[in-house]
Amino acid sequence: MSWLFLFLGVAAEAMSHVALKATDGFTNPIPSVLVLLGHLAAFMFLGQAMKGMPIGIVHALWAGLAVITVTLLSTVIYRQHLDLTTWLGMAFVAIGVGVINLSQGHSH
C-alpha cells in the first residue's frame, strides 16, 4: 500500500508543479487552487507512504519520480522540449530510482 501512496503523492506533486506555470504569479485562481491542493495532497499521500517505507527512500523516490513526471508533462502540455543531454540526465534519475527499488535496504 505504501507504493500506491507514493505514486499518488508523485502524481499530486507533478500536477501541482505543472499547474504552477499557469498561475501567472498566483493571479489565475483555478491553477492557483490546483497548486495548493496538489501540494497538500502530495504531503498527505507521502505521510501515508512513510508508514511502510523509510523516509529517505520515500523522499528519494518521490523527488526523482516527480522530476521525471513534471518534465514529461511539461513537454506534452507546454511543448517545452529539452535537449538530449537533459534527457540523458533524466535517464540517470530513472536508473537511480530503479536501483533504489531493487535494493535490499527497504521493505515493500
Automatic annotation (TrEMBL):
Recorded GO MF terms: amino-acid betaine transmembrane transporter activity; antiporter activity; choline transmembrane transporter activity
Transmembrane segments: 26-46, 58-78, 84-102
Membrane topology recorded in Swiss-Prot or TrEMBL: Multi-pass membrane protein
Localization terms from the record: Cell membrane
SUPFAM superfamilies: Multidrug resistance efflux transporter EmrE
Keywords: Cell membrane, Membrane, Transmembrane, Transmembrane helix, Transport
GO BP annotation list: glycine betaine transport
InterPro entries according to UniProt: EmrE-like, Small_drug/metabolite_transptr, Small_multidrug_res
UniProt KW Transmembrane keyword: yes
Gene Ontology CC: plasma membrane
Domain of life: Bacteria
Homology family: Belongs to the drug/metabolite transporter (DMT) superfamily. Small multidrug resistance (SMR) (TC 2.A.7.1) family.
Protein name: QacE family quaternary ammonium compound efflux SMR transporter
Species annotation: Colwellia psychrerythraea (Vibrio psychroerythus)
